[in-house]
Amino acid sequence: MAAVQSQPGLGHFSRLNPAVYIYQPKNDPPSKNPNLVLLAGWMDASIRNVAKYTAGYEKLYPSTTVIVIMTSSTDIVFRSNAANLNRVAPVLEILYTLPRDARFLVHSFSNGGALTLSLIAREFRAKSGRQLPVTALILDSSPGKVSYQGTIRAFGVGLPKIFVLRWLILSAISFSFWILKFLYWIRARADVLTKMREELNTSTLFRVEVPRLYVYSIKDYVVGWQEIEEHIDGAKRLGYKVDTEKFLDTGHAGHLIGHDERYWRCVKRLWDTTN
């Protein structure tokens, strides 16, 4: 797999394709640390913001390989399943060759990251016949449900600031939302977020014994905390090992802001349960 020069913010990472970045330290990690951390970024996340999390992992586990996979609104709305599989192909290539005893931490952000994670898990299962070989899972600001306000706020993050252009794009998104909602209803099919929520609690994709941490906030106006707690309750009923970190004053996928020590403390708390 050929690597090209990375973008600023991940300058020491190699870029495996337009969406995937990897950092491979020279030394092997200690036996209790992860061998691999996969960060599945939120929709239209900037490299600069994602780099805050890679920096935290490099500080916490300096000898661990870190992979970042980016997800855009174009990936979610317009790209085919085949195109999205091509986007995640370098990640799957690495996971297929991962030793059975590898220590693998997945950190997913928002519905965009969770959708990408579910795609990876489905394809891994289809090709290998196995569940995703995760040792611990973090779900930050997800999984949510389809809602009009949440959709507009989520897609609004990456839009240009010019009022007219922004209004035109949001109008198109609004129109598309109601058309898609009608098509899902008339075909009696589950929407993509409902399907993703179900897959995250499907034992053939994600092992029940793998500890997972939900990080969320009551001030998240993109994904409601009630939606996340509903998923938490469902996971517990199915026997998943669940831990939670509930913030009172942070925005969507922004729990690190102003709570740096607390955020990384709960990440370490989750990982320590695997040792």
From TrEMBL:
The highest taxon in the source lineage is: Eukaryota
Can the keyword Ubl conjugation be found in this entry's annotation? no
Record protein name field: Indole-diterpene biosynthesis protein PaxU
Taken from the record, one Pfam family name reads DUF829
Its subcellular locations are: Nucleus outer membrane
List the InterPro entries: AB_hydrolase_fold, DUF829_TMEM53
Q: What is the source species? A: Oidiodendron maius (strain Zn)
Primary localization = nucleus
Could you read off the lineage of the organism from its UniProt record? Answer: Eukaryota, Fungi, Dikarya, Ascomycota, Pezizomycotina
Keyword terms, alphabetized: Membrane, Nucleus, Transmembrane, Transmembrane helix
Q: Which GO terms describe its cellular component?
A: nuclear outer membrane
* Family designation: Belongs to the TMEM53 family.
What is the membrane topology listed in the Swiss-Prot or TrEMBL record?
Single-pass membrane protein
Q: Could you list the residue ranges that cross the membrane?
A: 164-186
